[in-house]
Amino acid sequence: MSIELAAREIAVKNIEVLKDIYQGKSHEHSGTFSIFSALLSRFRKFPELQNCLKLYVLSDDWKRDGAFVAIFQTLEAESYVFFDTLDHSLNETLKNCIALLDFSTTIKMYDIRRIFLPIVYDVINSQNLSAIERADLICYMLPKMEALNLKITLPTNFTIDSLSQDNVSQVNSAWSHKSEGSEKYISHVIKNNTSIGLFDEMNRLVAWCLRHDSGALGVLQVDSNHLRKGYGSIVAKAISKKIAEEDDCDINATIVSENVKSVEMFKKTGFKEEWQTWLLVIKNQGKS
Length: 288
Known about the structure:
Blueprint: E1 8-10, H1 15-22, H2 30-45, E2 53-57, H3 62-65, E3 68-75, E4 78-84, H4 91-99, E5 106-112, H5 117-126, E6 129-142, H6 144-148, E7 159-161, H7 168-174, H8 182-192, E8 195-199, E9 205-211, E10 217-222, H9 231-246, E11 251-256, H10 260-269, E12 272-284
Parallel strand pairs: 4-5
Antiparallel strand pairs: 1-2, 2-3, 3-4, 5-12, 6-11, 6-12, 7-8, 8-9, 9-10
Helix pairs in contact: 1-2, 4-5, 7-8
Protein name: CLUMA_CG001876, isoform A
Domain GCN5-related N-acetyltransferase Rv2170-like: 196-277
GO molecular function: acyltransferase activity, transferring groups other than amino-acyl groups
């Protein structure tokens, strides 16, 4: 079966329309606006990535209700799914669409709002599926103008620059969410999204931060030999400022709620807590 039994595919260019629909809506929809902003930025740089996105609407009145399901597949074995609606009378339709997704690949669901968690778990429990990973996240926001005004001071002879494919192995090895296939994901993100690395006087990578496909900052890490030197704050500021210069959107970072150190660092940078969200990685139990 196909999601097209419950939804209608529309042209990818309509993400601009959906972005405008969600702009300025209540804070619980800010993640949706951020994702569309990030996708538009990415498509301007890499137009070929538009071929990786499938966009479905749940009603003929989608320009009012904003109800959609988006599937972004850049890796053969994984799909990234996000969805939202301004009209919750469509929640059952949304559930039907989710149930019709192709779970033959691993699916990562981004920015799941609390109201949608029961819907997703109903689908998981009614099919032979398993949530192999769940992250309870808090989203922190930094206004674009504040990001543009961030002051960045580097240690003597240190530099900041975008990451390259040469850095993939180091970044993946240090990532707390490292898993089978995660190196391909890190490679994809570094190639297609904004990233920042802090390099020492020998051009060794000592700290870094990436921008996920969802538009949120993540994978922020400091090399174990350089902890408690303020390097995490440097890369957080640098990537925030870079995104603000490139995109017309505020900066957001999703942080695991128990990660007190990261929360405090982002707060010191100027980020403020906005909303709670969830990430689920869903796999067919019949697949190895």
